Amino acid sequence: MRFSTTRPLQLFFPWIRWKGPPNSLYLTFDDGPHPEATPRVLDVLSTYNIKATFFLLGDHVARYPHLARMIASEGHTVANHSYDHRVMIFRNGKFLQDQIVRTREAILTATGISTRHFRPPFGYAGPAVFRMARRLHHEVVLWDIDSGDFLRRNPADIAERSARQVQPGSILLFHDNDRTRDVISPILKAFLVKLDRARFSFAALPS
């Protein structure tokens, strides 16, 4: 079961970053780069002059290195989301290391940037994942608010729910993948319209 907010879990897993510094909101996008969804996300972010964080899959970076470079060149943070989006709990250390290292190397080759943040697929981050990420100098980052964009429901409803839940420092989860390619742009636009922009600014996680 997925919850729209992770706040009930945060006290039990203090070693995970759930929120950012309270002076901003943090938009994050998982599963890219995607040849259709990612450019649409970048267009919206450029229109609103917002910087965000993209948790990239290594095999997608290897397939679309120009999109990884585009993300970085527009001032967004590129981060690590594993190589091929396989569940990482109940896995041995070699598997965990391979998933993180191969992705870091793919992103480094494409962008010249060595990643500092890691988000495990599906947000499943057991103690072994945390230990391996820390050993490889990556901070485990999850989210405060799950937009539910991948459910492909009414964009206005998704935007309304997400905007209603934001707090200072909230990290919001969105996706730039095959399931969201047709909905992510209207969802983002509706969310930004509904949000009180006078109260909140946006930032990327530090790269």
Helical content, roughly? 25-40%
Summing up helix and strand content along with how strands pair, one would put the structural category as: alpha/beta
Low-confidence stretches: none
Name the overall outline: globular
Architecture (CATH level 2) name = Alpha-Beta Barrel
Number of domains: 1
**Could you name the CATH topology?**
TIM Barrel
Main β-sheet: number of strands, strand sense, barrel status?
5 strands, parallel
> Separation of termini?
31 Å
Q: Name the CATH homologous superfamily.
A: Glycoside hydrolase/deacetylase
Task: Give a quick precis of the structure.
39% of the residues lie in helices and 13% in strands.
Characterization of the model:
With 207 residues, this protein is α/β, with parallel strands linked by helices. It has a single domain (18-194), classed as TIM Barrel (Alpha-Beta Barrel). Helices cover 39% and strands 13% of the residues. It contains eight helices and seven strands; from the N terminus they run αβαβααβαβαββαβα. It has helices at 7-10, 37-47, 58-63, 65-73, 93-111, 127-135, 155-165, 184-194, and strands at residues 26-32, 53-56, 77-80, 117-118, 139-140, 145-146, 171-175. The strands form two sheets. Strands 3-2-1-7-6 form a five-stranded parallel beta sheet. A two-stranded parallel ribbon has the order 4-5. β1 (26-32), α2 and β2 (53-56) form a beta-alpha-beta unit. α2 (37-47) runs parallel beside α8, α5 crosses α6 (127-135) and α7 (155-165) crosses α8.
